């Protein structure tokens, strides 16, 4: 039997100890508060609704329950009706029939998962809108058109009517985003998805009309307005001056997407510019998807593909780090798209979503 002297063990430990110790200070002061981590109901509900109810229920549990991902935010896509959109997956039905007349049985796919998010107690539910109903757009379509000056009141009434309907059903829609990616109409016709161009000098009308409608119903403090969800961090600051000063007190949070996949430095530049333009309002990251890349962050860019390794998940973790740590943001949403690209996992066609799977 080999006996080892305790003094030799101690000496060995001392050899590997660091020569310099840096003490850590733990502060009782809150440095950052996270308000939500979640995803968007576009466009996967269309496909997943076709599965048996047991599978849909199991998926809902995986997304929203505390034994699953436990998402604390969900973005419900209020459909525009898909007029002139060629891809049915990206053309959700709208409840709008005519001014003040609605069919709330429309879009059973989207409303099913909205109700599931609520039933699992997701605390933050946003209703976001890609386009006004076709009768209100410049070309009477759900894409390739533009917001019509002077239509803000009608558009706002529609949005608030829908939110009030779901709130009366017990679904606490706490935010409305009235223009999702207003910098893109997603034309030409036939379009790949819904979209409505809202020029920078039109956006104040959209926000103020929505706030006025909420305020007239006593909902201005219950439902916040998110704006303007421009698609990239490089474009958004160049457009703030045309609309934000007029409505800054009506906006709850400055919300953006990051489809330009900015560097850390550029991300921080965006956050600083948004704070400056808004008088210090918080910024939220609300949409990104569809990128491959390396764990170090190289190779990011809008694309689709399949990565069976953990590399893509690590790349995505870097995007979340960029928002929370570099940008100091309190809220992060990603796209939960039809192939679950945001998780770096297998596509849902390959997942066993059955109750016993």
TrEMBL record:
Residue ranges constituting the Endo-beta-1,6-galactanase-like domain according to the UniProt record: 31-225
GO MF annotation list: hydrolase activity, hydrolyzing O-glycosyl compounds
Signal peptide: 1-23
Keywords: Signal
Keyword Cytoplasm (UniProt): no
InterPro entries: 6GAL-like, 6GAL/EXGAL, GH
Keyword Signal assigned: yes
SUPFAM superfamilies per record: (Trans)glycosidases
Protein's name in the database: Endo-beta-1,6-galactanase-like domain-containing protein
Organism: Collybiopsis confluens
């Amino acid at each position: 039997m080999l006996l080892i002297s305790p003094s030799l063990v101690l000496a060995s430990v001392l050899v590997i100890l660091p020569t310099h110790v840096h003490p850590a200070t733990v502060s009782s002061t809150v440095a950052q508060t996270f308000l939500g981590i979640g995803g968007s109901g576009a466009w996967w509900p269309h496909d997943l609704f076709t599965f048996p109810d047991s599978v849909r229920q199991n998926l809902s549990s995986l997304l929203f329950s505390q034994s699953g991902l436990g998402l604390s935010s969900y973005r419900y896509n209020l459909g525009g009706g898909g007029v002139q959109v060629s891809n049915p997956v990206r053309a959700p039905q709208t409840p709008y029939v005519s001014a003040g007349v609605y069919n709330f049985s429309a879009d059973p796919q989207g409303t099913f998962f909205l109700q599931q998010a609520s039933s699992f107690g997701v605390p933050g539910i946003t209703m976001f809108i890609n386009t006004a109903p076709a009768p209100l757009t410049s070309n009477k379509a759900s894409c390739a058109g533009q917001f019509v000056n002077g239509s803000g009141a009608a558009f706002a009434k529609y949005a608030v009517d829908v939110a009030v309907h779901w709130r009366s059903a017990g679904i606490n829609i706490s935010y409305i985003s009235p223009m999702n990616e207003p910098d893109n109409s997603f034309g030409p016709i036939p379009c790949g998805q819904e979209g409505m161009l809202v020029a920078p000098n039109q956006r104040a009308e959209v926000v103020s009309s929505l706030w006025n409608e909420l305020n007239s119903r006593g909902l201005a403090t219950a439902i916040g307005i998110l704006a303007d969800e421009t698609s990239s961090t490089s474009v958004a600051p160049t457009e703030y001056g045309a609309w934000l000063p007029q409505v800054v007190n009506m906006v709850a949070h400055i919300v953006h997407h990051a489809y330009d996949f900015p560097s850390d430095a550029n991300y921080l530049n965006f956050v600083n510019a948004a704070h400056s333009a808004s008088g210090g309002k918080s910024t939220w990251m609300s949409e990104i998807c569809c990128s491959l890349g390396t764990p170090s962050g190289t190779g990011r860019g809008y694309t689709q593909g399949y990565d069976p390794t953990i590399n893509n998940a690590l790349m995505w973790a870097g995007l979340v780090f960029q928002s929370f740590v570099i940008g100091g943001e309190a809220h992060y949403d990603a796209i939960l798209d039809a192939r679950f690209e945001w998780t770096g996992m297998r596509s849902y066609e390959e997942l066993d979503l059955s109750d016993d799977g």
